[in-house]
Batch of 3 targets.
Target 1
Amino acid sequence: MEKNYPEFDDLREQFEAGNISAVDFVTMQSDEMTEDYEQFCKDENLDSNSDFAAQAFMDYREELFEENLSN
């Protein structure tokens, strides 16, 4: 059963305000995003509970997005 996830803009505001961690920001978006994040952490040998890993994942996603735009 799919969880009810908050709106992305609400999550972003909460993250930017410092109310939620980077890990929460990533894992509260969707089941698919959480699975992608957990796989990224396994592939990169990172602790999925660390904000460093979550920030690295966000940077990675941003790079993919920019690559797709330029192709």
Target 2
Amino acid sequence: MIPTYSTTIRRKEMDAVLTCMVDEKIGPGELNTRLIQQAKEFIGCDGAVALRSPAIALRYALKALGVLGSEEPVKVMISALAPAWQYKSLIDLGIEPLVLDVDDVTGLVTAEIVYEGMKNGGRVLLLHETEGILPDFEEIKNTGVQIIEDISQSAGASVAVVDENGNETGRTKAGLFGVFSILGLEERDVLTAGGGAILVAPARREWLVLKHHTDEAPVTDLLPDINCALAWVQIKEFARNEKTRKEIFGMYQHACMVGKHKMFVRNLEEGSTACNFSLILNGSFKDVKQYTAKKDVEIHQAFENSVIAAFDELSDNCIHAKSLLLRTVHFPLYPRLTHAETAKIVKVLGTLP
């Protein structure tokens, strides 16, 4: 059976972690500093801090925004397809989450949806870039809402910078559009440390505010060197791994063109990452799962760990997200797939019931 998910850990990652263990320096130290520098170069941000979990990163981002401890309660808007930890973390912090539905074509929160959320009291947007797809940032920024980007699936993607004559003058990477950004390093994120997160401040002004809080962070909030060793190599190897993922994604995409099932609309060149291959089924998940299992290909519901999956009471207000939860599946997509395995999956995708 070809598993749906498999973290790409090669010899370089193993050697980095082993060296850390041999040196007996596994707590937060030199490698934490090196990882931060690597992340700053990768994203192009002014400052960053490596922490033990995305939830801890969110707490520091909200502190720096002045949301935590605010005399006036602030509602934080999140996508219904965002990971469930976002909702649970906000509740734990005493902040009211305002869950937003998504666009059924991209799986993303749009500016129109954000405006509706703001009418209901939303003032901060935790922007999950679902399936590695980047939204229309300019339209969302024009709402005036404060944005915390979640680039756990979209790190490495970018959007074009266009001048007044319509000419492309450069590209801006994911992680540089919000006031702060969270790059999760969990097992199924596009980059992994086996756990943890990097909290990013795109500009110097925001970094100075964030640094004031993170300089006082206890050692138990900081990412240990043993995890940093893995993440450091993962970032260095990102371009290589992403190239392979996109080549496989292209083959899958071609195989699905003749079928009845759909894919999310995305710009696969640079406007999104190939962190997963998701297919929106035009039929029964059970039937497709049984078919792929007979062909020795494992699939999973793409949003099984999402907010909408964990809190079914939100379904009435998040119709598109609920539909995508029930119909969207992940097929295996990772650099360690062999040519034979890729060919098998392509054949299965072309013959789905």
Target 3
Amino acid sequence: MAIKKMFFLGMLAAAFWTAFVTGCSKKAAAGGSAELSYVDVELGKTYTDVKATIKLLTHRTDMLKPDYPGVSFAEYLEEFNRMYPNITVNAEGVTDYAGTALLRLQGGDWGDIMMIPTIDKKDLATYFVSFGDLDTMNKQIKFATQWEYEKEVYGVPSTGNAQGVLYNKKVFKDAGIASIPKSPDEFLAALRLIRKNTKAVPLYTNYAAGWTMGAWDAYISGSATGDADYLNNVMLHEKNPFADKGDNTHAYAVYKVLYDASAAGLIEDDYTTTDWESSKGRLNRGEIGTMVLGSWAFTQMQSAGPNPQDIGYMSFPITVSGRQYASAGPDYCFGINKNSSADNQKAALVFVKWMTEKSGFAYNEGGIPIAADDNNYPAAYASFAENNVTYVSDNPAVSGEEDLLNKLNADSELNINNGGNDKIQKIIEHAANRDETFDEIMNEWNKKWADAQNTENVEVK
């Protein structure tokens, strides 16, 4: 009798343990909820019984304003509630997002969905739920590797961007620019024609905004090399990545465009007094010839004045072995709070998927569509197609080096693609003041990069 009782208790314990382990495995795989899975959500059918109020932390403060010229958050949320009337989404905008969001993330006071700030990939599972494994998510969305770690995907891009140059078509015509510039020399020649033949500012730097300066970093990978491995693999181990390659490519050529334009007086008369918001209307009205910004800015420039037809977008003026390339990648990515309640996670998941597949957000903002099977590209990319520009999306770092770029950025204080605004501002300052040559600046950057590589024991090839 005792043996039967012990056997029964043993079987019961084994069954309990199996159920417990299975449940935990499902929960871990789903990022905190046994039912949470991006691929399994069928919009309009899945989680329609969920009632929740969730908070979204966003960098798009402009979309929260009633006078936003595009589709506002209020309009998106109203449309979302037609499908999910029981889910309330409250959006909070943060102006200094890169720094503030990181502090909010670490403090835990940020809500249920946020645009993931720059963190080490190894820390993703500490804060966010997984949307699914990489193989599955690659079939669901573009740029799935942006916030992937150990084959789990923790971020879904809000939209995608290609890196190019905004320009005013009428200004180009009035200046006598016959064709789209495809090299640094051709671009500088075009700026000189704008200065000579029009009243427009040839290249508006938006120096004072700061973050607009850091945007120049986005061009040194695919746009300047045509190499999808360059940023996250090659550059990490490269000796003197800011050196002159002798062929008007790579980082040297990108930053030199800005230095040469500044030294030649082809930018604003007083770069310290630039204004981001008013610059949109000025480009639209033909008071500005060009601005170097991602494709996300295209629709904002179109809607900022009476001449949307005059706004053009071209690839960055670098040609690699006879071909032009454009770096393409995700904008900020949605991440769902690991510590939110199960219902809030479900509500957050359907909202993220709705924004990706149903809202039209990427198209409305002039971005690359995120759903894997969506090839409806907006008008911003017409010039890219006409000139056979090839999109290049950065490959992820190899296993074990996922956070090496972050480490080199921190050690060198160059902060490539990570808010390194001041180093770009200094290019303009030194060029305008004529107190440091471009080669001297690049030599300093190479020294900082080499010291960082040494600190991190990086094999330099």
